[in-house]
Design brief:
The complex is a heterodimer of chains A (267) and B (269). Chain A has 267 residues and is mainly alpha-helical. Chain A has 11 helices and no strands. Chain A has one domain. Chain B has one domain. Classes of the chains: A mainly alpha (267), B mainly alpha (269).
């Protein structure tokens, strides 16, 4: 346990070593949310309007929650694994007396911690500038389910980041390509991080529920907003948890297969 | 007569160099075939998702911010067109930092070709080139649904070219900053994020963001005004002042480039 606490501390300091890098990542996140905020504000110019099951207060809450939910689920250092596999640096890590997955989960926690702090600052800042009317959830059960859904979302994202990072075991030249396709394109669009999935027709929404993507952003935000009754919330959480378990299992299996073909190219 | 012949020869030489640089860039990409295919699929899927989302949105809301659904789609199509053209032409800006930090920019400076030309146009992107015909088709198709006049179409074409001039000016400024600060990656990504705010008409943004997108990073002139011109919302004065603005920006960015070159220390070479 002690060594992972050390990793946590060092990772946290490393985030500060590349300050500009971190600040720019946060600025980019905020800009994406700003586009979302202004787009939906103009759609809901009439305050009584109701589209896709949202009123103005709830869609603005969605925009602000995006900053917080993204900071928790999508801030991750696990995406760096692809690089260390393709340049052979993984060998250094394998020689150390630490568990590979615990090491990266620890680094993820450190990254999430810092991002959460910044997300609060950004939310406060934007709240003061934009002065929006916003929906605040007061139901304790919804808030607890929201916290649980964030934990599940983080595990799903960890598995997705790992699985895409393992591609260079077999094809070293596409270390960034696989992450671009899965994380930047599919996760961004199908998780609800770019727009609420309610915009899609019901058939598409139902199909998406059978994939892990909505459980990353859309389901946690829906849980917070209380858009569904408690039974549906629990069902969504159950499916999300099932995806987390399945993906973690696949991740471990692919890791073991990947290690067998790892050639430490570049070392 | 002699002067124009010389100019023609120079132009021909630069065209030959450009074709050579573009061919080299394509060969490099084709050597990494799997990455090429993944990025191509990624771009197609991204555009499909984005247009899909907008189509569902405008269908349910019948447009917003005072624009009809087709007009909103046309703003986005124009953004995608200008952004993709800029990505195709100015891709080498993304790898410029390495030239500066390694001192390899020396090798560009000593060659008998304009270093700005080499730095700006040195790596055409085939992924963007392949997607361009489909994007142009979408622009023409959605544009035709707006029934533009010949005059408005001419304005549109002129202003799209002007959008590219503005984009070139920004890329030149990024290169220049790269020489002075050795930092490219973040500047260019912030620029891209700001420009991506032009996916939608800038009328939807409130102050202070609207002013930022109008005066500081003129995404409005670059993307929104061309689309508005086709819709018939921009008069000749608006077109001429946008063109003057674009040329002025290009002039100042080139001045900045010359200033930056004087600061180049050739470190590490």
């Amino acid at each position: 346990m002690g060594k992972y606490l050390k990793v946590l501390g060092i990772s946290f300091q490393q985030e500060f070593a590349y300050k500009l890098n971190f600040i720019m990542w946060r600025v980019r996140n905020v800009m994406q949310v700003l586009v979302f905020f202004f787009l939906w504000s103009s759609v809901f110019q009439n305050p009584d309007a109701n589209y896709f099951g949202y009123n103005k207060e709830k869609i603005i809450a969605y925009a602000f929650l995006l900053i917080f939910v993204r900071a928790i689920t999508m801030s991750s250092r696990s995406v760096d694994v692809a690089g260390i596999i393709s340049n052979g640096e993984l060998s250094n890590l394998l020689l150390k007396p630490i568990n590979f997955f615990k090491y990266w989960i620890t680094r993820d926690i450190s990254s999430k911690f810092l991002n959460i702090i910044f997300s609060f600052v950004e939310i406060t800042f934007l709240f003061l500038i934009l002065k929006p009317e916003i929906f605040i959830q007061t139901n304790f059960i919804n808030i607890m389910l929201f916290v649980a859904s964030l934990l599940i979302a983080s595990l799903i994202f960890f598995s997705i980041a790992m699985l895409t990072s393992f591609v260079p075991f077999w094809i070293p030249e596409i270390s960034w390509g696989a992450q671009f396709l899965v994380i930047v394109i599919f996760v961004e669009f199908l998780s609800g991080a770019f727009f609420p999935l309610d915009v899609f027709p019901t058939l598409v929404q139902n199909i998406l529920k059978f994939t892990p993507f909505p459980y990353l952003v859309f389901v946690p935000i829906q849980t917070y907003l209380g858009s569904q009754n408690i039974h549906l919330n629990l069902l969504s959480l159950g499916i999300g948890a099932m995806w987390a378990v399945i993906l973690l299992f696949i991740t471990k299996m692919v890791w073991q297969k990947g290690l067998k073909v790892y050639e430490a190219v570049g070392r | 007569m002699k002067q124009s012949e010389d100019n023609f020869k120079i132009l021909k030489r630069y065209l030959r160099v450009y074709i050579k640089m573009a061919t080299n860039s394509f060969v490099v990409w084709l050597a990494r075939r799997s990455a090429f295919i993944i990025f191509l699929i990624g771009k197609i899927v991204r555009y499909s998702f984005y247009f899909g989302f907008l189509i569902f949105l405008v269908k349910s809301t019948n447009g917003f911010a005072g624009y009809t659904g087709n007009q909103i789609l046309f703003f986005t199509a124009t953004y995608v067109l200008i952004d993709t053209l800029a990505q195709f032409l100015f891709r080498s800006v993304y790898s410029f930092r390495q030239l500066v930090v390694s001192g390899d920019l020396d090798l560009v400076l000593v060659k008998p070709i304009n270093p700005l030309f080499r730095s700006l146009f040195g790596g055409a992107d085939p992924v963007d080139l392949i997607t361009l015909p489909a994007i142009i088709f979408v622009v023409v198709y959605i544009g035709s649904l707006l029934s533009p006049t010949l005059l408005h179409t001419t304005y549109y074409i002129l202003l799209v070219i002007n959008g590219l001039v503005i984009s070139a000016s920004f890329h030149i400024a990024v290169l220049s900053l790269g020489i002075i600060t050795m930092e490219i990656d973040h500047t260019v990504m912030i620029y891209r994020d700001l420009v991506s705010m032009g996916r939608l008409p800038i009328d939807i943004y409130k102050e202070p963001f609207k002013s930022l997108l109008t005066f500081i990073v003129p995404v409005g002139v670059m993307v929104t005004i061309p689309a508005k011109a086709l819709i018939g919302l921009v008069g000749p004065v608006g077109v001429v002042s946008s063109l003057i603005f674009g040329l002025a920006l290009l002039f100042f960015s080139i001045k900045f480039w010359h200033y930056a070159l004087k600061k180049y220390t050739s470190a590490s070479s």
